Amino acid sequence: MFVSHGATRCAIVAMMMESEDEEKKSPSLSALGWQTPISSLIREDFVPRDEWATAHLTLEDALSHRTGFPPHDKALALHYGDDDHPITMRDVTRSLRHLPAGAEPRVAWRYSNYMYLVASHAIQTLTGRWLGTTMREWIWAPLGMKSAYFSLEDAQAGPEDLASGYYWDYRNGGGYGRVPFMDLAGAGGAGGIISNVLDYALWTLRMVMAPDSGVDYDAPMTYALGLMTVTYRGHRVYTHGGGMEAYGVEVFFFPDLDYGLVTMGNTAITSNIVGKLMAWKLINDKLGVPEEERPDSEGYTKKAFDEMLAIADGAVDRLYPGRADPPLPRALPLGDYAGTYFHAAYRNIAIEVMDNSDGIDGKRKLKAAREHFVWTMAFEFEHVSGEFWVIYVEPRGSGAIVTLFGKAEFKIGITGKVESLKAEFFQDGSEGVMLFEKIA
Fold it and tell me: pLDDT band at residue 196, thresholds of 50, 70 and 90?
């Protein structure tokens, strides 16, 4: 069995559609529809910063990634509150009031796991029970999916084998490393399902058996309600991939061909790459596409993968092209920047000085381990000039395939001590700027 991540979203959408048939079991679902404002369901909890968004964002907006909210995945903690209680979907939903949006609602497409966690909270609130129980009763049982689970503990207690996750260490010259099992308590409806290809094939079979809409379709790739859809050689195809710290899933289906397929693997990113290559090979075989007319998927994939490995090269030049030369020295000794910094949504960042043996070529001087979060990762800081730094985000389990980076700036107060840290966690600035107050 494998963790499905992104493919879980389709189940959330299916549950929303199924709710119309479940009114007798859950009367509170009777008025539920795609245009239902989220705040009408969970008013005290769903309070984004924007007043208009709070009042008007609908379930359709949330499940189609048109709320304007960027990922903010790095903010998903495993514990919340003064009592440090385990994460709940309510905690995640309430944290939105502390997070900046990346765009105005319904203006730009912004992929957001958060919104599927918000939908999870809405479903649990209306049904009065755990999402996994509802998913099993409404979706898995009717389809005969007997090897599907919604928690790591349930999957490990089941009779099936759970695949261990691995990564290839690109940074240190190769070799496989094992990735610990991921705590899925915070994944919810964004990626909490654990299953296998046999069970997912049952779900895919149901999707290809859906009645044809009878509407001609020819358009570029678009996204709606948990699936991407596009035309390929005159056929409508629906697809969605997903990946966790050490797993990758790809789902494709062609309703008019009664054809679908699912791939699963136990590495992050690379299993998705291989899955897509396999899937398109089988799809082209199914359609009888001559070899000379097939896209060069392997060549394109290799080029994209090489670019992915090198994405952090030249980060300083990309983020600070007009920096001082020579750079200005920092104002304080390195140790004075160490400490604990707090943001209401991103929680604590505990920064410490790196050992001489750490970092990349000795350039990275500060680090912060993010162990108690849904996505485990490390932050590493490289000094640029004055109080300006680059912050590198190293996800666990990727083997340095993906290194994100953004700007960071320390603020020194009138006392001559560090007061706060301003940080961006995406190189394009799409997640906005987070202000962390130094608390220790």
Answer: very high
Task: Identify the helix (H) or strand (E) that includes residue 361.
Answer: none
Cα 248 from chain centroid (whole Å): 12
CA angle 245, 121, 426 (to 5 degrees): 40
Q: Calculate the CA dihedral of residues 10, 12, 16, 18 and round it to 10 degrees.
A: 70
Calculate what percentage of the chain has a pLDDT beyond 90. Answer: 57
**Residue pLDDT, tens place only, 6-30:** 666 677 777 776 665 555 455 566 6
* Domains of the chain and CATH, by start: 145-181+193-309 (3.40.710.10), 315-438 (2.40.128.600)
* pLDDT band for position 246 (cuts 50, 70, 90): confident
**SS3 call for 113:** helix
Question: Which two tokens mark 37?
Answer: 């404002």
Name the amino acid, one letter, at 225.
L
Residues whose CB is less than 8 angstroms from the CB of residue 51 and which lie 6 or more positions away in sequence, other chains included:
none
Paired tokens of 417: 């001590």
CA dist 423 and 366 (Å) reads 14
**What is the pLDDT at residue 182?**
84
CB count within 10 Å of CB 212 equals 8
Quick one: which H or E segment has residue 165? strand 165-168
Token pair belonging to 100: 């900046």
